[in-house]
Each structure stands twice: as structure tokens, then as C-alpha cells.
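Journal club prep — side note

Before the paper discussion, L.F. wants everyone to see what a predicted structure for a comparable chain looks like in C-alpha cell form. Sequence:
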Amino acid sequence: MTKTRWFYTYKSTFKGLLFVFALMIIIAQVWYTQTIVSSLRKDQLEIVQTHAKLYTIVAESDESANFGFLLENVIQPITIPVILTSPDGRPTYHTIEGISEKNPPFSSETIKKLEDMIKTMDKENPPIPVNYESTVLNYLHYGDSEMIRLLSWLPAIEVSILSLFILLGFVGFNNIRRSEQRFIWVGMAKETAHQLGTPISSLIGWLEVLKDSATPDKTREITGEMSRDLKRLTKVAQRFSQIGSNSDITYQNIVPVLNDLAGYFRKRLPQSGKSVRIHEIHPAEAICRINLDLFEWALENLIKNALDAIENGTGEVTLKLEKLKDSEDYSLDIIDNGKGISKQNQKEIFKPGFSTKKRGWGLGLSLAKRIVEDYHGGKLLLKHSKPDEGTTIRVILKGGKPNDG
């Protein structure tokens, strides 16, 4: 397996590993930030408790202590949001920024704001009682400092930025990858059409020379088959030339295409050493919107895939065409009783470069999907597969009548 194919085969694993790595970074950042926040909250609690004790010590040492002095020199220096209340919960002092009234009596509006803030503070941190002997003089309510609040928001901000970064990277990567694939397909198609043009012209010329020479029955038979194969080579050039261009889509009967391809493979199967029967189940006529050359190419790849899946030399391939219920569209099932597809590979089979064959390039199913879905507006999907029992690939094509388009 080449490095390119190996990358395409395991790129889903790479995406998963990158996601896990990004998740680990986020978890590490959140854990580290929360560790710092917890440490700061612990330090903050110790500061508040120290000031509360100092307030209590001064009050207990002097019954006539100036509480205004205590507030100004003990409580006010605390650099975190603090609200001092009476035992019954009435605000008596605060250090809240943005509230102009610092000392009672407070207006009803200020009291409402302080009471709301007390509820929030008590959810974050339990209030600290300020005691005089066995009597509670006040309660000290406090909230998180500005630094702690900013740090608390930091994980959410980091996760949001990282998620946006990942989203933009994912969208950008997908767009770049689609553009690269599109240019690869178009470049491959144009170059192949160019490369096939010269030898086809030369072979046609040699065929005319052979026809003009001695013409026993065997020669006529060989030249007849050469003519048929040369026509197929010409079709290859026509198919490739239409990739990347605005191909003509018309309403056509696809039954003759099934008959022609089934007959072509039946005649050449004995040369491959396989004893495979190809069955056709279809109505007499099925009108669908197709480009004949491209649809024939996609179907040829699907039939080849079904034949390759039969590894023991004997088996069956069935082409089953039927009209979908309550619709003008048709479904075409390519059914084989070959080796099947493992569950882990079923999501990978239509990706460019993926192949379970030793000599395969992994382009057949991907090309067929591109032709059916991008050029015909249909659907190509894996309907069913089970190891050692076989596979069913379904093609859905838009149907109608010739005068519809």
C-alpha cells in the first residue's frame, strides 16, 4: 500500500486522534484554570476571615469602640466585594463598586440591589459571622474578586476560541480537499483523453491495413472483435473528455445499456478463468436522465467490482432494475454473492484511494459515485453487505419521459 493510499485509508483515524488531542488540551486548560481559581478563593477566604477576626478582636477589647473607625480601617481595606449586614440581614455597610451610597440609611433602591447581591454572594461563599462574646454582631458577606471572575470565564472563552478555530480549520480543510480532488479528477481526465487519442488513431489505421490483406474467416472474426474493442477505447476517450465539462444529460432508455454491458462481460468472462453467471431483471423500458457515456462508465466500474468480489471462480451477479414506488425514479441494484465488505470498511469504500485489492488504486467506486451524484443528480450507496455472503450496491436515477427535458 502506497503512502498516499495509506493516508486516505487511515485519515479518519487521524481526525479522531486530532479531536482527542484537542479535547485533552481543553481539559488541561480547564483543570489548570480551576486549580488557580480554587487557590485564589482559598486565599480570599483567609483574608476575609482575618479581617473579620480583627474586627471582632477590636470590638471585644473596647465596648465603646468606634465602629465607624473599624469599618474604615478594618473592613474597607478589603479589596474584594463585601457587604456587612446586621444579624437580621439588613445591609449596614458595603464596598461594592458602582453603588454611590456607602453608609446607611440606604435608599430602598440601594437596599434592593444589595439584598440581590447578598443572595448571589451567599451561593458562592457562606457568610462569616462577626461575634462579640456569644452574640453575633454582624454577618460579613463577600463575593469573588474581579480577578477570580475573569479567570472563571477564561475556560469558556478558551473553549469558544479553540472551537471556532477548529471549525474554521475543518471548513477550510474540507474546501481545499474538495478543490484538490476536483482538479485531480479534471487533470487526470484531460491527460488520459490526450494520451489515448494518438494510439487509437494509429490502431484504426492498422486495422484498415489488416482488412485489405488476406481475409480468411479467422481474420474477419479477429478484426470484428478488434473493431468492437477499439470502439470501447474510443468511448474511454469520450468519457474522460467529458469529466470536468458540462456534459449533456438527456432522457434515454437505459435497458439497452444494461443489455450491452452484460453481453460484453459474458463474452469475456471465460478468458478471466471465472464461471460467473450474469442475470438481468428489468422492465422492457426505463427512461432516465443520463449522459450515456458517463453512465455506461459508472455501471461498467460497478459490474467489474462485483465480478472482482467473486474470488472462488464461480458465482452470480444480478442487475436488477425497477421503478421506485410512488416515483418516476428508478433503482438499479448490482448484486453479487462474493466476499462481501467488512463492517469497518463499509464507510470507506467510496473514498478516493481506498481499496482492498493488492493492485487496486481505489478509484472505481469513487469515480462511479462522482458520476452518479455530481453529474446525474442521483444517489450511489451501499444497500447491503456481509462478509462471505455478498454485496448489493444501489444506484438511484431520476426518471421521466423524453419530452420532460
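L.F.'s comment for the group: The chain is about 55% helix and 15% strand. Keep this in mind when we get to the figures.
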